[in-house]
Structures are given as structure tokens and as C-alpha cells.
Design goal:
With about 375 residues, the chain is mainly alpha-helical. The chain has helices at about 5-30, 40-65, 65-70, 75-85, 110-130, 135-155, 160-180, 180-200, 205-215, 225-235, 260-270, 270-295, 300-320, 340-385; strands spanning about 95, 100-105, 110.
Length: about 375
């Protein structure tokens, strides 16, 4: 079994393992979630429904040719802009904790998840048109950055600085892979980070998070969630307290079923499982990268790397935040945290990666068959001469 085929098997196994762990932990934490509405299994049932939708979406994406995204990228981009704009329309936007990241169109949906795929697809399509674009200032730098910038400009005021940074970081990485000059990228990265800091400093709650990250003892209220997460991880130790025996989820640790589910895993299942989660995401990254590198064309390669990057960065930020390595930022842990929009997007990305693998496999089979046919033709000619 070659590395390419092994990579898709590992990709599927890691995703199934992470989702299974997420369902198990959600059954342990959802009973104490404030949204339970008197039903201990309310959130679990909703997550299972979203999982079913995600599996169907994943299967469709794995079966359809990913080049359909290349041909219709502008539809998804325009639809994404429209959905993001609805977040500012009264009676449609759905506010949670002061942020208007969700819309209610019969069901609650987070358009920024859709925007992630739209940004990746648009940038991949642009650089797949002509490889020479990458070295040019306007075509290789300004144009793709402007496209992603439109989406980021709509997401940032929601307020969702985390997703804004995710899309921006993924765009820059794709531009780097495509061949954009570092002389253009590096100053812009510095400018972008400075801009985010300036914007964050004008938001009192963001300032509080930064100060709590640097001086948790002086800002106990702002650092409460992070401190409780560390207590959960520390009290679990190596072995853990046992599944269902965690205490921090009992209304001590806010968002224990979403953004801070990682410390609850550490408390109940121990250090070994948390390290296994980190290792599993590393396997996911390498498997996805191998699939992307062996794509049949430039669009597939950039699309694959974009999907792997944005999921990997989200996982890294979540784990970094919950272990106090990064300032507090509300991002779910992919495949594990409660949240339908994010789960469906991640499974859609997995489906696209599987399709990229299948397309690359078919191309190599065609090349192999062509070699065999040419060899048979040469042998037949030799027989005729004889």
C-alpha cells in the first residue's frame, strides 16, 4: 500500500475517531449546558442531527468532481457575501453573547463557516488560472488579498476576530504556496497583526482578554474561564477522573461543551487522551497535505492545502487558548466541540479531500494504462516486423 492510499485511510480514521470522541464527551457535558432546556440530551440530539447532515454533505463532496467548485466559485463567493450581510439585518441575525455571527432562516446557521470555503475556493481558482500571476504585484498579491478581504471585512464587525484571522492566515499561506513574493507578504502580515491589535484595543472585552492573558492574577474575572480550564486539566492528571466524573463542567467552566471541551476531556480522560488528540490532528494534517501534494492539478493542490490549513489552525488556536498558551478566543475544536455549522464545514472539507485523492488516483491509473498500452503497441509492431 503506497503512501498516497495510506494517507486517505488515515484521514478517514482520524476524523471518525475525533467525531466519536466528541459525541462521547458531549453526552458527558451537555447535561450541564445552560441550553439544555430541561432535556439532558437536547444538545446531543441536535449534534447527532448535524452529524447526519455533515456525513451526507461529505459523501456528496467525495462523489462529485471538485472541479465543479472551480467552475462555480463565484456563486459560492457571492452567496457567502449575501449570507454574511444578513448578519446585520434585524430579526434575521441571531445574537449570542453580544456577537451577531449567526442568522436564523428556519434554523440557526453561522455564515462565516460558509465563507471559509468561499475564500479558499476563490484564491485557489485565481492562482490556478495562470502560474505566472503569483510573481506579479497586482495579480499575485492585490487581487487575491482583496477577494479574501471582502469576506474578512464582513466577518470582523460581527464581532468574530478569530474567524477573520483564520481566513486571513489561510489566504496568506495559500499565496505563499502559490508563489507570491515574500517581499509582498511579510510587510502585510506585520500590518495585519498591528491592525488587529489596534481594533482589539478599541473593544473593552478584547482588551480585558489580552490583559487577563498576560496578568491572570490581576484580572481574575476576565481570566476566570482560562483558570477553570487549567484547573480541569490539572485535576485530571495522567489517568483522568473517569468519564462523567468531571466537576468543572458542572457550571464552573463556561462553554464546557463548545470552546472549552478540551479541558473537560483532560479532566475526565487524562493527559494521555489529550496528547492523543494532538497527535491525531498532526496525523490529519500530514494525511491531508499528502493528498493535496498529489492532486491532479494546481487548483486541487491549493484547495486541499487550504482546507487542511484552516482546520489545523482552528484546532491549534482552540488547544492553545484552553491551555493558556494564547489569549482567550472563541473557536470550537474541529470535529469534537458542539456546533452544527462548524461540524458540517469540516466534514465538507474532508469530503473534498477524499475527492481530490480519488481524482489524483484516477489520473495515475490513466497514466499507468497509457504506459501499458504504449508498451503493448511497441510489442505488436515488433511481432508484425518479424
Amino acid at each position: 500500500m503506497n503512501a498516497h492510499r495510506t494517507s486517505v485511510y488515515l484521514l478517514v480514521v482520524t476524523v471518525i475517531g475525533l467525531i466519536a470522541l466528541g459525541i462521547v464527551m458531549l453526552s458527558s457535558t451537555s447535561a450541564y449546558a445552560p441550553e439544555a432546556h430541561g432535556n439532558a440530551m437536547f444538545l446531543l440530539k441536535r449534534q447527532v442531527v448535524w452529524l447526519g447532515i455533515g456525513v451526507v454533505v461529505c459523501a456528496i463532496a467525495a462523489g462529485l468532481d471538485y472541479h465543479l467548485l472551480e467552475k462555480t466559485w463565484w456563486i459560492w463567493f457571492a452567496l457567502s457575501v449575501f449570507l454574511l450581510a444578513l448578519c446585520f439585518v434585524p430579526h434575521i441575525c441571531h445574537r449570542i453573547n453580544g456577537s451577531r455571527r449567526w442568522i436564523n432562516i428556519g434554523f440557526t446557521f453561522q455564515p462565516s463557516e460558509f465563507a471559509k470555503l468561499a475564500a479558499i475556493t476563490a484564491v485557489a481558482w485565481w492562482f490556478a488560472r495562470d502560474e505566472n500571476y503569483a510573481r506579479q504585484f497586482w495579480r499575485g498579491f492585490v487581487a487575491p488579498l482583496s477577494a479574501a478581504g471582502i469576506l474578512m471585512a464582513l466577518i470582523a464587525p460581527e464581532v468574530d476576530m478569530g474567524t477573520t484571522a483564520l481566513i486571513g492566515s489561510t489566504t496568506f499561506l495559500l499565496m505563499f504556496i502559490a508563489g507570491t513574493r515574500l517581499a509582498y507578504l511579510l510587510p502585510t502580515v506585520a500590518f495585519g497583526l498591528a491592525s488587529l491589535m489596534i481594533v482589539a484595543l478599541k473593544m473593552p472585552d478584547r482588551v480585558g482578554r489580552m490583559m487577563a492573558f498576560m496578568y491572570p492574577d490581576k484580572y481574575p474575572k476576565e481570566a476566570y474561564q482560562t483558570v477553570q480550564g487549567l484547573i480541569a486539566l490539572g485535576s485530571g492528571g495522567v489517568e483522568g477522573l473517569g468519564l462523567g466524573n468531571g466537576r468543572q463542567k458542572m457550571m464552573y467552566l463556561p462553554f464546557a461543551h463548545t470552546d472549552f471541551i478540551f479541558p473537560v476531556i483532560g479532566e475526565e480522560l487524562g493527559l494521555r487522551i489529550t496528547l492523543a488528540i494532538v497527535f491525531t490532528f498532526i496525523v490529519f494534517i500530514f494525511s491531508g497535505a499528502i493528498i493535496a501534494m498529489r492532486a491532479r492539478d494546481r487548483f486541487g493542490m491549493l484547495l486541499g492545502f487550504g482546507i487542511v490549513t484552516i482546520i489545523a489552525l482552528q484546532a491549534a488556536v482552540n488547544i492553545g487558548v484552553t491551555t493558556a498558551l494564547l489569549p482567550n478566543k472563541g473557536l470550537p475544536l474541529p470535529f469534537i466541540s458542539y456546533g452544527g455549522s462548524n461540524l458540517v464545514f469540516c466534514l465538507l472539507g474532508v469530503g473534498i479531500l477524499i475527492n481530490i485523492y480519488r481524482q489524483g488516483l484516477n489520473e495515475r491509473d490513466e497514466q499507468k494504462n497509457n504506459v501499458i498500452m504504449r508498451a503493448r503497441t511497441r510489442n505488436a509492431r515488433r511481432v508484425v516486423r518479424l
